[in-house]
Here is the input.
Amino acid sequence: MKVWSQDTILFKLTAVLGDCIVAFTRKDLFRYKAMVEAATKKKSSIVYGRLPPEVRAQQARMFNDPTSGSNILVASDAIGMGLNL
Here is the structure.
């Protein structure tokens, strides 16, 4: 897994399957998710702290499932809150 900071994402939109893009505001998370999906034509999962635990777990499952088509993760530091990625 390659991890990019929010500074790096502005210069590099060559996300590949298994990458995680980390941002620190919900606004940036949704902006980066849209940018990645537009640039790569791939779906992405999103995880942030205010998501209900069930939704975070669902997004993590989608990210980990190679058949889901959602194999790029856009997340806040919530990725460290009990998710098995």
User: Anything to note?
Assistant: The two ends are 10 Å apart (CA to CA). The helical segments are 6-9, 26-40, 53-64. The first strand starts at residue 3 and ends at 4. DSSP finds three helices and four strands in the chain.
